[in-house]
């Protein structure tokens, strides 16, 4: 994806942006988008309230949104098929509580929309003559959606890892390739990994088993993860938190994820946790915390108590955003302005 600005001129453009940012179209969700002047900032998805007390729900959601310290305003998209005939809009009390909390946080709500499985409309305007329900096709046909697709974005949803298709002796071969921490072993695998990130088509069955084995060693695994980001500081902790000097090579990041999925085809259960952590961490760097959490859960299902998965899960559960997500000049998605 390139970093040329894509201007969002219409409501449909913004609604098209949300699935591109989250990786899928939400269901029964509230999506808060922070604004940094006229540019879009972080995107936060939370489950719809379903009876939660309005003020507590709003405070919890806004506490995450305020992690974008550059935010000057916000937008809200409500995805629901809930019906509340006694009120003009579903979850009216929760939206009002959100407006109050966002105003207190100095990131006032600029606009809001309601999206159902059949249509969409402006949430704040209830006059059908002014703001009628519109067809979902308008979102798919919007200029913003076309521009995002042209730039290389693809709404493909959560990708479930493919089942193991390797040889019966793969488990023993991978274990045999686990390095013992010698610098020369680590450097050899780093060089091999860098070559594959530059030319992923050169991945062979032998190389897949070698890298799968290398990832079983925590120190080598950490080096391979850090090596995905070529402009990051040397300290793994800083890289883990998404602290980068300039905008990362996101094409290289996408390639790393694709390679991790390929490695899992050659890796049996019980040895997949490192790849799942890598994929989830890269999703988190992109701002897709919901996807990241699901991969970390798969890692813990694969290896109970896997320490890296536990640490990364804690980042997500605390609502922490990667440093690069909060900077539109470095973030995965394009610097978008309305």
UniProtKB/TrEMBL annotation:
Q: Which domain of life is it from?
A: Bacteria
Q: Which InterPro entries match?
A: DUF4192
Q: What protein name does the entry list?
A: DUF4192 domain-containing protein
Give the source lineage, highest ranks first: Bacteria, Bacillati, Actinomycetota, Actinomycetes, Micrococcales
């Amino acid at each position: 994806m390139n970093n040329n600005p894509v201007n969002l001129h219409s409501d449909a453009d913004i609604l098209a942006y949300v699935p591109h940012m989250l990786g899928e179209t939400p269901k029964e969700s509230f999506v808060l988008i922070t604004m940094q002047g006229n540019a879009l900032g972080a995107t936060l998805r939370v489950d719809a309230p379903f009876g939660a007390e309005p003020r507590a729900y709003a405070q919890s959601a806004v506490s995450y949104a305020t992690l974008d310290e550059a935010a000057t305003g916000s937008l809200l998209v409500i995805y629901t098929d809930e019906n509340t005939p006694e009120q003009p809009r579903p979850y009216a009390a929760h939206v009002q509580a959100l407006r109050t909390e966002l105003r207190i946080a100095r990131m006032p709500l600029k606009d809001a929309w309601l999206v159902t499985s059949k249509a969409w409309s402006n949430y704040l305007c209830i006059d059908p003559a002014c703001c009628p329900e519109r067809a979902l096709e308008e979102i798919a046909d919007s200029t913003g959606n076309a521009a995002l697709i042209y730039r290389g974005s693809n709404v493909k949803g959560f990708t479930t890892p493919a089942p193991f298709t390797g040889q019966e002796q793969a488990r023993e071969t991978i274990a045999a390739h686990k390095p013992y921490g010698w610098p020369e072993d680590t450097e050899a695998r780093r060089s091999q990994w860098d070559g594959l990130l530059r030319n992923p088509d050169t991945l062979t069955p032998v190389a897949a088993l070698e890298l799968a084995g290398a990832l079983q060693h925590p120190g080598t695994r950490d080096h391979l993860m850090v090596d995905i980001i070529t402009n990051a500081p040397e300290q793994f902790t800083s890289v883990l938190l998404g602290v980068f000097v300039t905008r990362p090579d996101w094409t290289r990041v996408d390639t790393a994820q694709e390679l991790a999925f390929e490695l899992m085809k050659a890796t049996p259960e019980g040895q997949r946790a490192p790849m799942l952590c890598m994929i989830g961490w890269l999703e988190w760097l992109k701002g897709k915390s919901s996807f990241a959490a699901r991969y970390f859960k798969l890692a813990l299902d694969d290896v109970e108590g896997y320490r890296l998965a536990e640490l990364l899960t804690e980042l997500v559960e605390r609502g922490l955003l990667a440093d690069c997500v909060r900077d539109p000049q470095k973030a995965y998605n394009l610097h978008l302005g309305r």
